[in-house]
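Teaching assistant here, posting this on the class forum so everyone can see the example we discussed in section. The complex has two components, and the goal was to see what a joint structure prediction looks like when all of them are supplied at once.
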Amino acid sequence: MSSPDTALPAEAAKPARKPLLPRDWRGQVAMTTVLVLGAVVMLVPFLWMVATSLSRKANSSMPRTPSLWPPDPSFFNYWVATANLPIIRLYLNSLLVVGVTTIGYLAFSAIAGYAFAKGRFPGKTALFIVFLATLFIPFETRMIPLYLFVRDLHLNNTYWALILPFLAGGFGTFLMRQTIATIPDDLIDAARIDGASEFRIFVSIVLPLCKPTLATLAIINVIWRWNDVLWPLLVTSSRDMYTVTQGLALAGKSSGVYTGVALATAVMAILPVIVAYLFLQRYVIRSVISSGVKG
Amino acid sequence: MHMESGSKSSPVDPGSVRSRLARAFRGTLVWYSFLALPLFLIMVFVAYPTAIAFRDSVFTETPAGPEFAGLYHFRRLLTNSIFWGALGNTVLLGVAFLGITIPLATILASMLNRLRRGSTPLKVIYFLPQLTSSVAVAIMFNYVFQPDWGLLNGTLRTLGVEQLPLWLSDPRLSLGGSRAAVTLLAVWAGLGYFIIIILAGLQSIPTDLYDAAAIDGASPVQAWRYVTLPSLRPTFIFLIITGSIDALSRFGDLWTLGGPGGAPARSLQSVVMFMFQQGFESNDYSLAAATAVVFFLIVLAVTLFAFRGFLRNEFRAIR
């Protein structure tokens, strides 16, 4: 191909080359216009929020015509917001709670999923129904008894209250069982013949083959736990135990009249999530598609 | 050979049977040990509180201890106009949200699917609000809907609109009232998820169907109407079901905007907020438990209806 003699066929192929504009360029331009306008509608509230959070005057008077640029750019609102709320502490709380629940959720989902996919033991169907049934119990149904139970155990205002109820769940177990069921039995039997224990097989054969599902589950769980507000509101009342989303909910209510401060708090709460999303967007969107579950 | 070893050669060897049994037992035990901790957690934190919710709904707390009340609390709940108001709000907001979001997302996803360039950044932007907690979205939109200087009314005024809606300050059931505002908020926040799921549905439609339609002389619009939309049926059903369940459990954004009472004038109170208020403000755990049970039954009905085929396959697979 690269030798000079082949210049002729390349020449001959020239007329078949794509025209500069696709045939349906009008349609493409129209669709792009509509879609870009839609994207602007999605983005403008964010930009307006950031601009307003950077304006000190926003706390007393707002311009009658919305502006995407602060008239008096300053970080004043951010200083006030961090003075009102121990935001670093809140971040550490959220990271700890989200991190531990995600690791636990993945581990328990995977090992239970392995037992249901490849195990042979009496009562398997009945136990699987128990796990599957939890999919049909909305959190809100058990919210109040769970709160009273946690309170009676004196776990209020502890990390345990934020972590323990979310370590195991039917959804993760179900998703892992589906994935592990597709691993050929021969692979596992071969390891058994070599004398590997079930746990060893689980760790060194099953888990590596489930990486994509584990990543999906991790992303979904991080979004769930990071954004959860109902449960943290119930079990933690001390400011040092707030999660980021909870702190935002309470600060947004109490500083509601100070527009700039409330929006600065909101920016601080969502910025890291957005930055992480921009880096991981491919995986996030793929996870949402493959599990059908949203954040 | 020896007596003991002689027994080994007999056809039914009790020793080897015992060791086989022991091995089989150990083989079973290992699976139970895998399930023990997750099962324990599910029993303690899911099954037990659910059972308590059901129990509390038929008991009344008295100083002398719980007293069986039968269906008394359910009668109380079903004659409570605030509960019906909250249920009505929840259903109305859910229907409005799905009625707007599904057609809009279908159109946008179809366009994204046909776009030659730039669909990835657009997808990323449309999905962005989904990653933002409902609380942050609510705080943002509290100001977006501010009647005097909010982003929406300020823009409308610049465009020359004179009769500006009051949005969140107007509890009436109107297109410029609080319910319309939170529906716009929900559409803005949820659109990306619907687009992504419909886009995945679009991409799974076999191209032969379009080739066949083209051979039959169908225009692109006809192909969309007679090939695309029918092929998306399972996707729509999935989205309606998950969307209904999410709409029924709506809490975070409405709570942030209107408190547990769903201000203004309870126009934004959802069922979960009603439950929250009964349980934690009125300390009427029995009424809250009855609400929880009714909520559970509604969600269960929706889920079972949707997943009846799926569940049948699932139980067949596990056996």
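For the discussion questions: Chain A is about 70% helix and 0% strand. The two ends of chain A are 51 Å apart (CA to CA). Think about how each of these relates to the inputs above.
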